Amino acid sequence: MNVLIIAGMQRSGTALTANLLGNRDFSIPQKVTNTYQSDLQQFHREVFRSQGINENGWTTKDEIELKEQHVAKAKAIIAKCDHVKYSFWEDCRITLLLNFWQELLPQGKFLLVYRSPWDVVDSLFRQGNDFWQTNPELAIQVWLNYNQKIIKFSSQFPDICAIANIETITKHQQLFIAAINQKFRLNLTSSPTSIYHPELFNSNKSNRYRPSQIYHHFPEAVELYHILEQQAWQPDQTPDQSWQTLIELTPNSTNTFQDWFKYCSVIQQNQTLHQELANKQSIVYQLQEELEQYYIQSHPTQVSIDQTQEKDRQQYQILVQEACHKYQKANLVEMGQNLKKALTCTPFTPTKTIESWLHTFTKICAVNNYHLDLYTLIHSPEWQQVMQLMVV
Questions:
Q1: DSSP string of 70-126, one letter each residue
Q2: Alpha-carbon dihedral angle through residues 175, 179, 185, 189, given to the nearest 10 degrees
């Protein structure tokens, strides 16, 4: 069976790569794809649990021995899609069993995706999984295990392997797809709708000292990353070396991996709280809308009155504001006309109405830096005419 297998360390962009390639098999209905993909993931979880390994595949164990029952299950998964011309697999845990799957799928092609150790560690910590809490340095050791296997396997089978940095893939999507098509004799096309959003693909640029921190404690990880960059696909055959300036920075001697994990955990907790608050606000808004609709249906007459009163209130405010503008232009006649109209829709008592006018005039004049002469205003004939209407 022909199959394109995407593998690599968790948080390295294997799922994103699958989506960028179209996230579908070449000749299999999506329902079938989801079925064997689920079977594949469940298979790896069972294998790891049977050997006391974290089911996510977070391990530094070099060799993983499979029992006969597991081999039989793997063959059954292959049999499910053996009738199709070409299939498409993605699971990070395949990386720990590359040779096993290659033996069962001799015509398989392997796309091995990697990401810088500092970005992977940061992304793992931001997930907030307590697995790393007691030994956060284990994250970089797991990264080493996965990517050493990538280098070793691709050296054994260079013709059926392609190595690529997820950042290079996302920056040069069309060129990358063309290169994969050429190497593996495929006819892949990019996803019709873009699922890649750079702002969501967090690259650890907020702390420039993370690379040097890893280099200080695990220089072999940086050396391995350099090897990956040299062997990986590059659109112009020249790997990006800008990251090397970061490892030359002097790391904070007091900043430990434990501090890194705690920092990311706080960020994750904060994001979770914000999301919970947003969800609760959404529920409140929904309830408010439902109550409002219920009130409208139950009290149509009152709603009509309320709407009329609201329109009157808005009209009143407009008229008083316009009256003030006329006053500022020394057009007291039109000022008086607007105040008379405002009397017909005022929501206040006469005393409150006058207070409202004076408050509005004072506020608008202050904003416009216009001197308000209250004595002259209230003794003007136009103002007095409006006052007489109020006592009639």
A1: HHHHHHHHHHHTTTSSEEEEE-GGGGGGHHHHHHH-TT-EEEEEE--HHHHHHHHHH
A2: -20
Instruction: Give me 174's structure tokens.
Output: 């069309």
- CB-based contact 73:42 (threshold 8 Å): no
- For the chain, give the mean pLDDT: 83
343 & 261 share domain: no
Asked whether residue 117 is assigned to any structural domain, the reply reads yes
Separation of alpha carbons 84 and 232, rounded Å: 30
Q: Is the pTM of this model over 0.70?
A: no
Q: At 163, phi and psi to the nearest 5?
A: -110, 140
Q: What is the H or E stretch that residue 162 is in?
A: strand 161-165
HSE-up of 119 (CA within 13 Å, CB side)? 19
- Name residue 322's amino acid: E
Q: Which domain holds residue 364?
A: 301-390
- SS3 (DSSP) at 331: coil
Q: Is the pLDDT of residue 191 over 60?
A: no
How far is Cα 46 from Cα 64, in angstroms, rounded to an integer? Answer: 12
For the domain that residue 73 is a member of, what is the CATH number? 3.40.50
Q: Is residue 121 part of a domain?
A: yes
What local confidence, expressed as pLDDT, does residue 110 receive?
Answer: 97
The Cα 259–Cα 207 span in angstroms is 13
Q: Model confidence over 280-307: pLDDT tens digits?
A: 667 666 665 665 565 556 656 654 555 6
